[in-house]
Design a protein that fits this description.
By secondary structure, the chain is of the alpha/beta class. The protein is 31% helix and 21% strand.
Amino acid sequence: MQNSSRLFAEGVCLALLVSAGAASAGRELRVCADPDNLPYSNDKREGFENKLVDVIAKDLHAKVKYTWIRQRRGFIRRTLTAKACDLLPGIPGGLENVLATKPYYRSTYVFVYRKGDGLELRSFDDPALRKLRIGLHAIAVEGANQPPAYALGRRGLAGNVVGFSMFGVEGVTNPQGRIIEAVANGDIDVAIVWGPFGGYFGKRQKKELSVVPVSPAVEPSGIPFAWDMAMGVKPGDTELKTKVEAILERRRKDVEKILDAYGIPMVRTEATPANAQAKN
């Protein structure tokens, strides 16, 4: 009787373990991301946000399931609001209709220009800009002009601007990187872009480029050029938010290693863990 009881107990324990393992193996982390938006993400999972999601999923013992949606107007509405996913990487801190984690890095707009051209751009007030062909990503995700466009316009430099679309067209991969290629090829003199685009694509050009943070970080008019970046979950999902925050903090060194490998220019603040500095 004792042997039978022991065998029964062992059998129950084994069944529970198998059941728990099956439940863990079947857990999904649903993520919404752009299928062609390096260095952030693509459908080959080559972006730094893809790598960060893998770090989070591993700690959660979950399998990642992607919903690929291009970042266009209404992106939040079509993703988190529509309950298409649980996690949305790479959102600005304070974004409406999203429950954001604590920031895990802070980046900045940058000047990108060819080394050896004699340029030392740091500010929108540099007189050299008046003689340069200046590349800008023409339209932001939600259809508004990006901060550099306003800064240049206030200084009467709109006529120097050459616009580059961030959106893909058939047969063109990495459209967001074409502006950096234009700098390397000499088609424009300088690009002013969001740091991750400048850092990532700048490292991949045959021509050596300088990637320099815009200074100051906030215009006298109040226009900011540096932003905290976080991850977003559905409003009310405080459990997942807390778990993701804890993982990003616990795996801080891994997070920073990934960001550094992709050339992401980062600025240090007390609120963000990443502490690398943007480099020339």
